[in-house]
Write a structure and sequence with these properties.
Length: 457
């Protein structure tokens, strides 16, 4: 047993045993970050007793402060605690591998057969279900995050800034963190970490107050930063050369855009998808307006982080803008590049910061900034719900510009009664019956196919 008086070293458990456990966890990580974190909580804290409850939650709280998918970063962090750097690499890699393979196959099926009537009817059912899934995310995150009126105000301001004024997403995130810290100077409750109960059972291998042996140092940090940055950007440089040779800018555009997105994805996938969707649809034209929600529906059906939907965006965008390459080759290469630049930063951020984070357990200023960002995430996700509803419940929309206002509004005459009805069904089964996203997607897909069979869609 790891003792509070002794630091935690490498290989608290055998790496081979940990690898098997992480692989089994990776096959169960459906249902978004909440479900993924619940799986790790059950396996690592409650069942195997490898890590203490407070230690697990401390890691989660600070992974939420980092940009990127917090569930995968939590896997990297706990893998590092258990087996050092090797453990972090194994845990984080296995966490995304099954979903990456599955979504690559689904993206290929969508590109190859998405124009058929059957597949069209399938997506006519699942797209409204995704709207309900995002609405449920607003409800769940809001219930956890908005425990003070000031935080409700931050959420409302974030929603209005994105929806009506088109403030850039990174500005909203930075402003929310700054506002959370400033408000905490007057409202001490915003500086307090959430209280969590301790788990029952025998003592964990890594206790709540044991220190990791890997101390922070400038030498270590410099080495991790240089190696991580090289691994992060070397493929982008290689693909830039390929873009020059093939006469298409899609690889360079996607590599740079998603590298940038990787450092502003605070608050999980739902929070950044509005930003990705706006850029992919309106700026780069990789997707049509309704296709982002289809990609999200596919990502919801695969294990792993929901932000894996960027692989779908890359696949479809490169297939349509391949230059002199074969479209299928371009799509697969773009998928690999975007997956790499999206997830490599997660390893860099966690392995660089983990030794420092271990010694910042009681930092109230960081807690306050995280509280502000989490509150803003509620507004960001609500904006995503509006975006999806606009492009899936109505066939046409228009942009209204009036001074600082810049907002898309639907043409009410173009409303889709079938989409409205399926959305209502999805909201009922999720919010009132407690159905999971995967089960709801299955029901709505069946409704879409059923309507196709009887000739209604």
């Amino acid at each position: 047993m790891a003792s509070p008086s002794h630091p935690v070293g490498d290989d608290v458990i055998p790496l081979r045993e940990a690898t098997g456990a992480w692989f089994r966890i990776s096959l169960q990580t459906f249902g978004g970050p909440a479900g993924q974190i619940a799986v790790m909580q059950h396996k690592l804290v409650d069942e195997k007793r490898w890590i203490g409850q407070q230690r697990f939650l401390h890691a989660l709280n600070y992974c939420m402060l980092l940009p990127g998918p917090e569930a995968q970063q939590l896997a990297i962090y706990t893998g590092w605690l258990l087996n050092g750097v090797r453990g972090g690499l194994v845990a984080g890699g296995l966490f995304v591998l099954p979903g990456m393979v599955a979504l690559l196959a689904l993206s290929a099926i969508y590109v190859g057969y998405g124009a058929t009537d059957f597949v069209t009817s399938l997506f006519a059912g699942v797209a409204p279900a995704v709207i309900a899934i995002v609405v449920q995310a607003v409800q769940r995150v809001g219930k956890r995050a908005l425990h003070h009126r000031a935080l409700v105000g931050i959420a409302v301001v974030a929603f209005a800034a994105l929806t009506f004024v088109a403030v850039p997403f990174p500005v909203v995130v930075f402003g929310a963190g700054l506002l959370g810290w400033l408000l905490s100077l007057r409202i001490p409750a915003l500086r307090q970490p959430a209280a969590h109960g301790a788990a029952d059972g025998p003592p964990p291998l890594i206790s709540d107050d044991a220190l990791h042996h890997e101390l922070p140092s400038l030498r270590r940090s410099g080495g991790v930063l240089l190696l991580g940055a090289a691994l992060w950007f070397a493929p982008v440089a290689a693909f830039a050369a390929l873009a020059e040779a093939t006469g298409t800018s899609v690889f360079l555009d996607q590599g740079l855009f998603f590298s940038g997105a990787a450092v502003v994805t605070f608050g999980g996938a739902y929070a950044v998808l509005a930003y990705v969707a706006q850029q992919a649809v309106n700026v780069y034209h990789w997707l049509a307006p309704g296709e982002m929600v289809r990609g999200l529906a596919l990502a919801e059906t695969t294990p792993g982080p929901l932000i894996m939907v960027v692989q779908f965006v890359a696949f479809v965008g490169a297939y349509r803008h391949p230059g002199s390459l074969d479209p299928w080759v371009a799509a697969v290469l773009a998928s690999a590049l975007v997956t790499w630049v999206t997830f490599v930063p997660c390893f860099l951020f966690v392995l660089l910061g983990a030794p420092y984070v271990e010694r910042l357990r009681s930092n109230r200023h960081l807690t306050a900034a995280l509280t502000g960002i989490t509150a803003a995430v509620v507004g960001v996700i609500a904006n995503l719900a509006v975006f999806f509803a606009l492009h899936n419940l109505f066939d046409r929309s228009r942009t209204v510009d009036a001074g600082p206002l810049h907002v898309d509004v639907p043409l009410l005459s173009s409303w889709d009664p079938v989409a409205f009805a399926i959305t209502a069904v999805a909201l009922v089964v999720m919010l009132w019956r407690g159905w999971s996203p995967l089960r709801t997607l299955g029901l709505c897909a069946a409704i879409g196919v059923g309507l196709f069979v009887i000739g209604r869609v």
